[in-house]
UniProtKB/TrEMBL annotation:
Source organism of this protein record: Mytilus coruscus
InterPro entries for this protein: Cyt_P450, Cyt_P450_E_grp-I, Cyt_P450_sf
Name listed for the protein in its UniProt record: unspecific monooxygenase
Keywords for the protein's UniProt record, in alphabetical order: Endoplasmic reticulum, Heme, Iron, Membrane, Metal-binding, Microsome, Monooxygenase, Oxidoreductase, Transmembrane, Transmembrane helix
Keyword Phosphoprotein in record: no
SUPFAM superfamilies per the UniProt record, alphabetical: Cytochrome P450 (SSF48264)
Length: 388
């Protein structure tokens, strides 16, 4: 009797699994009729197992078979890959609004319920949010602002001193580069300080940012396979916990600025956001539904967006200059001949063509977020593509 019962359970399980697979294959067949061509994937995980260790290179190979515009399934999400400058230009410029929305990934929904600047839905409210953020950045973080240049040059000098102190041995510059870049961003956003490395808020922000990067550096699998949060709930819980620590850090900064805010003397980006909140949130005709929480959350986007990308770019430049020392020598010769012994300033832009070309070539060869460049930034989300 027991054997018959076990055999029946196995049969029912197999039938259930086969039915799910058949339904998924049928749904994909229906969706693919009006979609670009692309490779088939596996049920539930899509083409993810076949992307390998270098997804951008794999996408380049797929383009040779399916063309510059093709479709792959990333877990539960159908994704269109754009693999040529012409296709990207058409999406970004000619049909920009169609491809400006965000997919409702788990991580996007967790971040301020898709009302943040970086992960928000493309709506009139978001467009106003973007306008406010751009205005504040131009006011306090513009490269031609004397304060901004002073902060950058000060951190550059500290980083140079650190390098010179360690010329006698091998060392990893990652930590100091990360602190220097973070210090620039933190001072622009939260106030200038001669040594913000002793600032408790800055130390906590660095710690929390690193935790987020280590956790989400390889991507959040729950985003493309949302059913995983029921299989490995600890993954989703941990993401929320780390995000909450970042929110607490930025909320603390904003609350401290509120206590000393003076609209006649705006000190930094945080003050600029407080001023914008008073201007827009209290005017129903202007605010497009934007709230105080929406505007204040912009600080999280500003602080989180620049740390890793800027520091990684600088690390790649140092790595390449160390490997191609003849290029390093040419860069040094140009700087010596044009600049001399003084410090380089923003006024020197355009006077150092070889140095600028070296920086740009490094960014071309080693983009710091290639998967985003090739799949998520060069692959655009359209509301016509619905997940299963």
């Amino acid at each position: 009797m027991g054997d018959i019962f076990n055999q029946t359970n196995i049969t029912l399980t197999c039938v259930f699994i086969f039915t799910l697979i058949a339904i998924e294959l049928y749904r994909r067949h229906l969706r693919s009729k009006d979609q670009p061509p692309g490779p088939w994937g596996l049920p539930f995980v899509g083409y993810l197992p076949f992307l390998g260790k270098n997804p951008p290179r794999k996408c380049t190979c797929l383009a040779k078979t399916y063309g510059d515009i093709f479709r792959i399934q990333l877990g539960s999400w159908p994704t269109i890959v754009l693999n040529s400058s012409a296709a990207i230009r058409e999406a970004l410029v000619e049909q920009s609004e169609t491809f400006s929305d965000r997919p409702d990934f788990f991580s996007c929904k967790v971040v301020n319920n898709m009302r943040s600047l970086g992960f928000g839905s493309y709506t009139p409210r978001w467009r106003l949010h973007s306008k406010i953020a751009s205005t504040v950045l131009r006011e306090f973080a513009s490269p031609n602002k004397p304060t901004t240049e002073k902060i950058i040059m000060m951190e550059a000098e500290k980083l140079t001193e650190y390098f010179l102190e360690n010329t006698h041995t091998h060392f990893d510059p990652h930590e100091e580069i990360f602190l220097a870049i973070g210090s620039v961003i933190y001072q622009i956003c939260c106030g200038m300080d001669k040594d913000c490395r002793n600032d408790k808020g800055y130390i906590n922000l660095i710690k929390n940012t690193k935790m987020m990067q280590e956790f989400a550096g390889a991507g959040n699998p729950i985003d493309v396979m949302p059913w995983l949060r029921y299989v490995i709930p600890s993954k989703a819980t941990r993401f929320v916990e780390i995000l909450q620590t970042l929110i607490v850090s930025t909320d603390t900064i904003m609350n401290e600025h509120l206590q000393t805010f003076d609209e006649k003397y705006l000190r930094d980006v945080a003050d600029g956001l407080i001023f914008a909140e008073k201007k827009y949130c209290r005017s129903p005709k202007k605010n497009q539904g934007i709230t105080k929480s929406d505007i204040f959350s912009t600080l999280q986007d500003f602080l989180g967006a620049g740390f890793d990308t800027s520091s990684s770019t600088l690390e790649w430049i140092i790595l390449y200059l160390g490997h191609y020392q003849h290029i390093q020598e040419l860069v040094q010769q140009e700087i010596d001949s044009v600049i001399g012994t003084r410090s380089v300033s923003l006024d020197d832009m355009g006077k150092l063509p070889f140095t600028e070309a070296t920086i740009l070539e490094t960014q071309r060869v080693s983009p710091v977020v290639p998967i985003c460049c090739k799949i998520f930034h060069a692959t655009f989300w359209s509301k016509d593509l619905d997940p299963m």
